Amino acid sequence: MQLQAFVALLSLLGAANATQDRHVRLGKRQNAGAVVGSSSTSQSSGLPTTTSFTSSATSISNSPVPTTPVGTTIPPLANITSGMATPSTVPVTATYSAGSTPLISGAPVLPTPFVFQAASWPTQDQIAPSDSVEVSQWMEELTGFNIPDISPTADGTCVGDPVAASQAASRGWWTCGGYTRATDITSCPTKMTWGVSFDDGPGFYTQELLNYLASKNLTSTFFVIGSRIVERPQVLVEEYMAGHEIAVHTWSHRPLTMLTTAQVVAELGWARKAIKDVIGVTPTLMRPPFGDIDDRVRAISLAMGMVPVIWTSTGTGATFDTNDWKVPGGVVTGPQSFATFEAILGNATMLNTGFVVLEHDLYPQTVDLAIGYTLPAAMNFTPSLTLDSIGHCNGIPSTNLYRESNTNTSFPYANSTSGDSSVPSGSGGNGGSSTTTSGALSNAIMPISMIVASLLAAGGSLLM
Ligand SMILES: *[C@@H]1O[C@H](CO)[C@@H](O)[C@H](O)[C@H]1NC(C)=O
Ligand SMILES: *[C@@H]1O[C@H](CO)[C@@H](O)[C@H](O)[C@H]1NC(C)=O
Ligand SMILES: *[C@@H]1O[C@H](CO)[C@@H](O)[C@H](O)[C@H]1NC(C)=O
Ligand SMILES: *[C@@H]1O[C@H](CO)[C@@H](O)[C@H](O)[C@H]1NC(C)=O
Ligand SMILES: *[C@@H]1O[C@H](CO)[C@@H](O)[C@H](O)[C@H]1NC(C)=O
Q1: For residue 387, how far is its CA from the centre of ligand 1 (angstroms)?
Q2: Can you spell out the DSSP letters for 3-37?
Q3: What local confidence, expressed as pLDDT, does residue 12 receive?
Q4: Within-domain flag for 85
Q5: Choice among 360, 361, 368, 388 that is catalytic
Q6: Is position 107 within any domain?
Q7: What pLDDT is attached to residue 452?
Q8: Residue 114 near ligand 5, beta carbon < 6 Å
Q9: Can 199 be counted among the known catalytic residues?
Q10: Residue 36, domain member (yes or no)
Q11: How many domains does the chain have?
Q12: 247: domain range?
């Protein structure tokens, strides 16, 4: 066990390192307008950049490998790996000027183009500090709301905090056991409807995805990160103006349950501000990074006017995570991620409702998987699927997705813990305590120091 854990540690360090290298390369390739912040910090070298790591949580099916889509630059599925050649990026297609009218009725016109001034923002990819004038103001939004007195978890993982994990039911902690509340959005209500979303952008390859979605008349929900928005504001404008839904995915992508209440407010507040500064509106939906939410984080989010959105759990412990985010780091391969997606579609046919799936637009591998494989597979699926954005499939009028155009005083809901809790049977959540801490481990946005801390917390039980 010790040896296996050590091998895994090396693999994940290598994975994170490789991804950081890619950021550096891309940063240089990208035109001068792009600001590459602290994500380009180089880390220690000499660790392996390829790995034979296999996770028991990864399902490898025998389904036939699809052929390469014709007439595209998408590589064959087998070539979508951590080491694949990075494709060139496509330029933004439209340039919307200040004063342009958005598609959302009642929303303000587009503001003056955003100019990033680092001194006015928290350090990119670091937990947003809580000792600022802005955060003090945002803290006032919690006044009058009952924020449960739940202690922060050690690191947002089950194995990292056994005491909190043992209280997961009363905490409503999704990560350990898949606990949700009536106020969470976790699916689309209509059977055979997929609420499509992409997380962690805007990225270098998002525009390519936007072009594809437009060509298929598809809309998606984008859960965007503040640290990425300030780098590529024009891509966020494109998403919004093309009719996609924009929702908050925090400033630095940390597990929110491990943060203090003021830090959670800071993480949500700075991402919300970045969105508002770039497109002029304030989202009413958010997604917690790694799905890591409990009743305290829910209450904070709802008090700040944002309804939590996670992805679907089947009730058998599986969640609808394609694991696409593990491909850039070499933890799973493109074919393995696609096999997981096929299993998700198979499982979706057995649900009484529609569903929501976790996918990402930050990396070339994840965008290639979406454009070349998962979206086409869903559109060709039998029985036929409806692809929709998450707010729309839930019947939320587009005006209500943003504070400035929302006219419904009972949305977002005021209260997080009233109403029924819904708890899937078995251990759901993002890598329940019986599996790995995958949810919080290998996402490349997490700094290596945190990955190491998580691994050390996981100890010898890793890979069991
Ligand atoms: C896919 O990978 C194979 C084997 O490495 C390589 O020969 C081929 O050129 C690659 N194809 C594309 C389109 O990248
Ligand atoms: C939350 O719900 C409880 C019980 O339903 C209620 O007493 C309380 O006033 C609600 N709080 C808010 C802020 O709506
Ligand atoms: C998309 O919608 C437009 C207008 O409704 C229609 O003309 C076009 O054929 C549609 N394209 C596809 C690929 O469905
Ligand atoms: C699909 O359902 C099967 C059977 O319940 C389960 O073992 C598997 O993990 C599920 N896979 C996904 C990706 O949901
Ligand atoms: C307002 O939002 C609530 C909660 O989503 C919903 O039940 C209600 O139907 C909405 N009212 C209107 C007028 O849209």
Answers
A1: 31
A2: HHHHHHHHHHHHHHHHHHHHHHHHHHHS-TT----
A3: 37
A4: no
A5: 360
A6: no
A7: 31
A8: no
A9: yes
A10: yes
A11: 1
A12: 3-78+123-457
